[in-house]
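Side project, low priority. Logging it here so it doesn't get lost.
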Amino acid sequence: MDAFAKISALSMEHLKNGMYPAYLLDLREMSNILKEEGLLVDELKVLMLEFFFRLNCPETEPAIDPDLVHEMEDAAKACGLTKYEIDELFLDTVRDDTAPRRILTARDGLYLLELCLSGEMGNAEIIVRSIHNECTRF
């Protein structure tokens, strides 16, 4: 079994057992393997999954990971994708039920991704934190 398949299987176990921080690490490792293999669109898809999962997982700090955003920017540039192609890829990759607990929709996630890619990471983090705080009050 190759490294990607092993990590992918492990990630499903982590997800199934609610081990979300480990799952996020698995996704990052999977994206690194895809990048090394030159599968840049697939790398970007996995990074998008991680981005959306973080948004919907209140225990992740920070919700907006600057390193992740920069990796997505780099992958999108390497793929030669336009803003509209990035949007389309995000909505094709991420579904509302992608995360076990849905706080934000895929369209909400896309809006926050667009904020981040336009240099507004701080504002995106404020939005996500306020939503997470509202959700934890109930």
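Brief comment: The helical segments are 3-16, 20-36, 40-55, 66-79, 83-93, 106-117, 121-136.
Revisit when time allows.
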